[in-house]
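protein disulfide-isomerase: structure tokens wanted.
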Amino acid sequence: MTLFRLFDAVLILNLLLVLPLANADGDVMKFTDADFKEGIKPYDVLLVKFYAPWCGHCKKIAPEFEKAATKLLQNDPPIHLAEVDCTEEKKTCDEFGVSGFPTLKIFRRGEVAQDYDGPRVAEGIVKYMRGQTGPSAKEIDTEQEFKKILEADDVTICGFFEENSKLKDSFLKIADTERDRFKFVWTSNKQIMESYGYNDDIVAYQPKKLHNKFEPNGFRYDGNYDTDKIKEFLLHETNGLVGIRTAENLYQFDQLPMFVVYGQVNYELDPKG
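Answer:
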């Protein structure tokens, strides 16, 4: 065996020792104090659950976390979920300031990026984590693509911008920080802007199922490029007059004073609500 082949073999062996494999019981990776720091470095985005086996909330989220992990591994590229047992791996949990269970954090290339404050059900976790990959705001080039996006069951924040727009710069900054709450798209296509009647504007579009005769389908931001004012607009206008609060979008209502009416709406029997 040549020196170079020997070096390659040693390098591969070291990588196999460092990179954790999905645990035998499912698709959620398990980390320990010994492998956590090196093990999380290869991942562009990684959601880690810090838990205690005796914790009731941890037991409740466990099957949802597992289902989300399985689905996110089918993503292109795959998104990984991991967990750390804080009753066994106390050093790691202390290092990241874990004081309650479960605590979820998002890591990027070995560095903690933010606390996870999204949904705790499988579909909500999947949606939230998919929003953490790729560009925070997608550029739209065709009217057909734009129409398709507006038909989805999501609040969509759309920017219509000319070149060198200061409002666009603010829009993209906010998309980076609020990507876990909303879907952001933008366009500079003149045909799309003429078709929808917007130019250097930000518009919050309601999901199709929430369209009604009492309010417009889209809410236009009429302020300047101040990021704080744009965030305030998103906070108050994205759910319309009466928003529909679910387990998946609960985090969108966490800063609003609310009057809550509980009821049942069957969108299959009555698509308009």
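The two ends are 71 Å apart (CA to CA). The chain has two domains: 18-130, 137-253.

Cheers.
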